[in-house]
Amino acid sequence: MQKLTRRLYLDLLTWAIVFTLSIAGIWMRLHFLNVPFDRDSFDEGVYWQSLRSMSTGASLYQQIFYSQPPFFLLSIYPFYTLLGQTIWAARLGIATISLFGFLGALLLGKALAGRLGMILALLLLVASPVYLAGSQMLQADAPSIGLTLLAVGLAYLWWKRPDGSVGYLLATLTGIVLALSILIKLLALPALIPISILACAHLWIERRQAVRPLLFGCAAFTLTAILLFLPFIHAFPQLWQTVISFHTAAKGDYLEIRRERNADLIRSALMTPLFLCALYGIFAALVRRDWRVIPLLAWFVATIFLLWEQAPLMPHHLIAVISPLVALSVIGISPRLTIKKRYGSINTVIIAIAITIMFWQSIVNLQTIQASYTNLRNMSNPIVMQHDMGVVRDLEHFTRPGQLVITDAQFIVAMADRSTPANLVDTSFVRINSQYITTQQLITEASSTKIDAVLFYTHRLETMKPSFYSWVQQHFHLVRSYGDKTGLWIKN
């Protein structure tokens, strides 16, 4: 009875801490969620304009240029349409889906290190500045990585209970969640590695007994992918071109600068307290001869390789390392010990040191998050925003609702409740450099009666497409100059 009471007490304490951390994580995501500027300098405007085009009936991969797998915008669209079609509504969708990462941290922590693993895995994720920033930004990275963590957590739970109805359920859920994570963004592909290693290891050990649950998992993965691709089957060539070929072309264009830039960014992602926690977790697992670290190490290495090959690699892509680093950190506190019992005191010391490192890392991260909040507050100051808001007011004054604006500042145009042409929601340097936007395409669009204005603001269009800038000078008139070839042009 005493043991039962102690166990109940520990369960209540664990779930009280989990609840507190979860509420804190939710509040952190809602805090400064509605800042009136593009948090990534460009991508948020692209996806906001894509959502605006979807709300008018335009389709992904056909009218709308879209370079991600289909589930990203499809998962955000219900939040956007039901909650007012604002940037806050879209970001709330990101924040909500990112919470699945919390569940993934709990499941993976539980599978690797019990109650304490649950708490510390959740703490590491809640206190991660990189994951928090991604969870408040209209981009695919955080939802994809959050679901990736959940998929791997489910896979490790399946490894512990592979048989019976629970085994079938866990295998099926793993397949579904893994497919969703990859079909949000291909950045989740490395998660295939640890899950495949676990599946192959179990097949090797259990032989025939493991086949059926694995078949259910594979079938769930395949069926989920088919169902998501099915609405776009008639546009599959365009889908392949924008999701795969576009990035391949961009990789070739950035080949010369990729190595040095990627090395610097990856190095910055690894020079963190979380990486130190992960290194210690690897050391502790090897001391214990805990082979469960092998799939996690393979996951981490595959993620680094993917980032190394990414072109162009952007700072927000580095969120991909968070999930494997959290997992490698938590395995360092596993109570599992396969060496001689007389070394149990060593195990206690290892766990104590690992916990100390993780708490120190969380304190450092929380200080970083507080500094980021201060920066967001400063950037939201009306004095700082006055130039951009002046452009918004000009758009509202000189253009008409329902008319389209060609621009390289998609977020500002959306702030003015104006839309871009569906196939020009993305006018990034990457798309321009890879020749996925031509001067003739821009001129054709600008000649349409649906186009009311052209806004040059970030030097993407007028610098990369000077012929189009000259054409606009001849066929539009300048109503507001913002200096250095930036300005708002209205059709003659």
The stretches of 5 or more residues where confidence is low (pLDDT under 50) are none
- Number of helical stretches of at least 4 residues: 22
Spatial sequence of strands, sheet with the most strands:
1-2-4-3
Average pLDDT? 91
Helix fraction, binned, reads 55-70%
Q: Could you tell me the strand content as a percent range?
A: under 5%
User: What's the domain count?
Assistant: 2
Order of helices and strands: HHHHHHHHHHHHHHHHHEHHHEHHEE
Main sheet properties: 4 strands, mixed
- Tally of DSSP β-strands: 4
Our Rg estimate from Cα atoms comes to: 25 Å
Give the overall silhouette. Answer: globular
Category from helices, strands and their pairing: mainly alpha
Amino- and carboxy-terminal Cα gap: 86 Å
Structural summary, described in words:
The chain is mainly alpha-helical and 492 residues long. Helices cover 68% and strands 5% of the residues. It has helices at 2-30, 43-55, 71-82, 87-98, 100-126, 129-135, 141-160, 164-182, 192-206, 211-229, 236-253, 255-270, 273-288, 293-309, 322-330, 344-379, 382-398, 410-415, 429-433, 439-446, 460-464, 466-475, and strands at residues 404-407, 451-456, 476-483, 486-491. Strands 1-2-4-3 form a four-stranded mixed beta sheet, with helices on both faces. Helix 13 packs antiparallel against helix 16 (344-379). The protein is globular, with a radius of gyration of 25 Å. The mean pLDDT is 91.
